[in-house]
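Hello,

Our lab assistant flagged a job as stuck in the queue for most of the afternoon. It eventually completed. Since we weren't sure the result was trustworthy after the delay, we are filing this so someone can double-check. Below is the sequence as submitted and the structure that was eventually returned. Let us know if re-running is recommended.
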Amino acid sequence: MYTSTKLPRTSVLFVSALLGGLILTSCASSEQTANKAAPPIATNGAVNQLLANEGSISQKTEVASIVRSRPQLIKKAAISLTVNSVDKTVDAVSQIINKQQGDLIGLKQQQPKTDNPRHTATIQLRVAENLLEPTLEQLAKLGTVDNRNITAEDVGDHLVDYQARLTNLQKTEANLQKIMDRAGSVRDVLSVAQELSNVRQTIEQINAQLKSLRNQVAYSTITLNLKAAVSSTSSQPAFGLQVQETWNKSTHSLSSFSVGLLKLGIWLIVYSPYLLIFAALFYGFSRWRQTHSPRLTQTPESTTSE
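-- returned structure --
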């Protein structure tokens, strides 16, 4: 009896386990099939929520996958030189920058003046990042180095962030395009099209920022300040220069005085009618005064003495 009852129980348990496994398998397969089916078209807030969820996952994946091989540095250098001739040095700098296949992006010169007797110039240069040091060495040979400095800014994190955002937005754009292809109503099409336009605009902005940063990393800028040397052997100009300067000043003063007299004569000629009228009035008044003034009466004493 013991043996006859044990076999049926074992078979029942085995069959029950088999049926349970089949049921679980069928449920799982149905869930997977349901998940693989195309989702309904989402609009407005649903589109944003779907894109936000996909964006957060893809952005984390991209940030984790991007690995920088070396620091991405924006280098800027400044060097000041005292040279014998600023004009000749500017020509030499142009030759150096052409040899290095760089660009001269700015030039500002200031000629000697009374308050600033030195000839100065400021030059803005741009060269490839790997040619920054050789270019500075060649520029330093053109004169006496007063000061020199190099600054660097690491923008690797910004590049990684921009690249991750760009990749995320490109995937979002592809997903939006798929949703737009499946959209049926006009309202759904307009909603997805608006979202797609915003995403594409952001992609263009990030592309421009990436291009600018990469260009600054690839090319370094140099600010070159030139200053002409001033001789301290003589504190005043030569005798010949002083005579020449005095002659120039005197002739200029004579010409100015002559021009002033000529201008005065022109003014007198122009206003001569008014001057003649005033002169005639003054003369007439004087004659009238002499004519009508009381004559001196002779006293008896004066008559007797005569």
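-- support follow-up --
The delay was a queue issue, not a problem with the job. The result is valid. The radius of gyration is 49 Å. Residues 1-47, 56-67, 231-235, 302-306 have pLDDT under 50 and may be disordered.
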